[in-house]
Amino acid sequence: MKNYILVFLSLLVISLFSACHKAHEASTAEITFIEPSINDTIAFGTELHVEGTIGGDGEMHSYTLNIANADNDSIYFSKSSSAHAESYAFHEHWVNNLTDTTFVKVTIEVELNHEGAKTSKTVNVVCLP
Amino acid sequence: MRYLLFVCTLFMVLHSRACDVCGGVSSNASIGLFANTRFHIIGFQSGFRSFDTYLHEIKHSREQMFSTDFRFRIQLHRRIQLLGIAPYQIAIQQTDFGSNKVHGLGDISLMSNFIVLNKRDTNGLSRHFLSLAVGLKSASGKNTIDTDPLKNIYPGTGSWDLLLLTNYTHQFDSKWGWQNEASVSLKGKDRFDYSFGNSYQLTSQAVVNLPLSRYRLISAIGFNGEYHEASKLEGARTLIPNLNKGFVCSARGAINLMGNSWLLSAYLQQPIVQNFNEGLTKQRLSCGISINYLINK
Question: Who has the most CB within 10 Å: A107, B71, B100, B162?
């Protein structure tokens, strides 16, 4: 009977350790923009289509998409995800409502791990009035 | 009692088949085998379906749909039935950046079912039963333009569709039966000249009918196959090639409990093989429950 209890307790401990095992955290990630391309021009009233992928070498912690003024960092559009995953696919649209010719930067910033390591990539486009 | 048992078998495939991949309620309505019963029927069915959408082979979103349909059937004549379905749907799309919710009344459908063959044996058991149905799905539900990314989770398609359906049941004995249904939904255009592709559906299942105390328990197991043509758009705008085109073959099972004029049903359907939107959309397990009241004519 003692043997059965020991086996049961061993299995329980192994299960608990397995459950607590942390996923391997990312130390680097590759961000790929499928759209937009560098220096794309976006006419007034049309959509800026942002699409791409993020692939990490482990589990990433979050990512943010920002569309902002390249000169003064005013943010026109921002969305964040706190999903933990080894890969992300993003696909968002923002309508150009700017009344002056504006250089706009599209940035993806990824938080890689609990230590707060980050990586990012930016593509600049031109928004026309 | 024999009539009651038969009604029960008929209801097992009574579920509104949604969708153009993952939107638009009741495009291929399924009426099951409405045989020669003496009942008018009224009831509700609730269902749950979900889909995963992939982008560049990475899961991008999950769409979940909860629907409740009000249903009725009126026995107009010994061989003619009128059926109606009014769905209400709540759909949620979850992405990395949050969730979107769309809810509202779906497209109301009306169908007439004509019983063309009902061959009975000397004991009165219906051995061969064949019916043909024709119906219309209205554009009454909440819908949106095709450029809306949430188009496929709206409860309505915005089009009037023609529904054609046939049912055949072979009863081997008082316990075992084989039930088949084939349907076509010919899709119309919405007000933006967009139309979902025509869809085709085939369901086949074995049915076993057993006594359970004062009730009857009727179980079924079989498969369901669907094929959807690509969406179309008239005018200057163009669509992504093969949009919403695809097929799915699913295993399905259902149980029904009937007694005291009430019929309770539940079903599960699990996709086995599928390819929608060139692999970008994957249907997941779907299920449903229904409650119906049978009224003597």
Answer: B71
Q: What is the pTM of this model?
A: 0.82
As beta bridge partners, residue B134 has B112, B164
Cβ A89–B58 below 8 Å, yes or no? Answer: yes
pLDDT in tens, A4-47: 666 666 666 666 555 555 579 999 999 999 999 999 999 999 99
Subunit contact B54:A89, Cβ cutoff 8 A? yes
Residue B62, helix vs strand vs coil: strand
Query: What tokens were used for B258?
Result: 């009937």
Give the pLDDT confidence of B53-94 residue by residue, as tens digits.
898 899 989 999 999 999 999 999 888 999 999 999 999 999
Contact B60/A at CB under 8 A: yes
The residue among A47, A88, A108, A111 with the most chain B CBs within 10 A of its CB, best to mutate, is A88
Contact B158, B106 (CB under 8 A): no
Sign for the CA dihedral angle at B33, B37, B41, B43 comes to negative
- Put simply, whether B59 touches A (Cβ < 8 Å) is yes
Question: Which of 1.10.220.30, 2.40.128.130, 2.60.40.420, 3.40.50.1820 would CATH assign to domain B2-296?
Answer: 2.40.128.130
**What DSSP character marks residue A25?**
B
Nearest CA in chain B to A79: B97
CB-CB contact of A103 with A124 (8 Å): yes
- Search chain B and give the residue with CA nearest A80: B97
Domain ranges in chain B are 2-296
